[in-house]
Amino acid sequence: MCHMGTADGRRSQLLRGVLDLCLLAVISEGPAYGYEMTKRLRARGLSIVGEGSIYPLLGRLERDALVETRRAASNGGPPRKYYSLSPEGERALEVGVREWETARDAVDGALGLVKVEVQPCTSS
Amino acid sequence: MCHMGTADGRRSQLLRGVLDLCLLAVISEGPAYGYEMTKRLRARGLSIVGEGSIYPLLGRLERDALVETRRAASNGGPPRKYYSLSPEGERALEVGVREWETARDAVDGALGLVKVEVQPCTSS
DNA sequence: TCCACTACCTTGTGTTGCAAGGCTTTTAGG
DNA sequence: CCTAAAAGCCTTGCAACACAAGGTAGTGGA
Question: Which of residues 48-87 of B touch strand D (CB under 7 A)?
Fold first, then answer.
């Protein structure tokens, strides 16, 4: 067996409770299969997301009926399992994004990071 | 015994790995005792933070020598345990804030939330 | 044949936020 | 004096979950 335990420590905990949201967001932009999602997420800055993280998560999303699955053969390798959002999944994504924004702003406030009001630079 | 378990569900998980940072940030603005920190955090939008969350966390911060403690009598009640940042704590706060910003931006990107570039409105 | 890549999944472990409850000291009411 | 409430502190037990590691299966090239 193998166990390393604390690989990155804090950073891996920062994604708690948001990874499923990220997955839903990725799926919402078009059906995808698990192996590809890790690459999509990695390309977006979530560099540490591995397969061991997302497959249990995808299973949970499927169990909660937030995603629908469909099998399709691949050109080289085992058949892919494509995930797409269910109507409930879309709603969960919207709700989750709002929850994330709220929590994010609260943390920014607690950390003393100034929230910048966006104002157009028109010469009034 | 008592166990409720899933009180809020997702929202409580969003604070994973950031609560200690929030605590360090609160302490960095002046020594504080635990009971008061929950109120300070609540006033800043972290409405769900309870004592059961922060006391084990404060213990961990103390064990890791990120904070220093000092006892002081209170006007009514048991003596307060004031926490203040150690030099290591200040450094950990800086590093942690940067990690949070990175993770936050990555999540924003993965969720498709547009990042606004801040530009000063000076008449150049 | 052997290796590498694609693609899926499971098991085990450590961290940690939280509910619930208990302890101590002081002040207020009766 | 006795009780109750509040201010403070702390511990126990649990469930959630991200991750490392490893396992399986199919295809194609050296």
Answer: 51-52, 55-56, 58-59, 74-78, 80-81
